[in-house]
Specification:
mainly alpha, 1 helix, 45 residues
């Protein structure tokens, strides 16, 4: 698979509520129970 993106793509960092745009407003990330268990066992890195 080829990824086509602007040069600055890899430097992008979301600034969340400090952003004046709303491209990600209202997004939800659904996680099933089994995956949530795995995530909860991970140590903060």
């Amino acid at each position: 698979m080829k990824l086509y993106a602007p040069r600055y793509y890899l430097q992008f960092k979301c600034i969340a509520d400090a952003c004046r745009h709303s491209c990600c407003a209202g997004w939800e990330i659904d996680v099933d129970g089994e995956t949530m268990k795995k995530y909860s066992l991970l140590k903060d890195g």
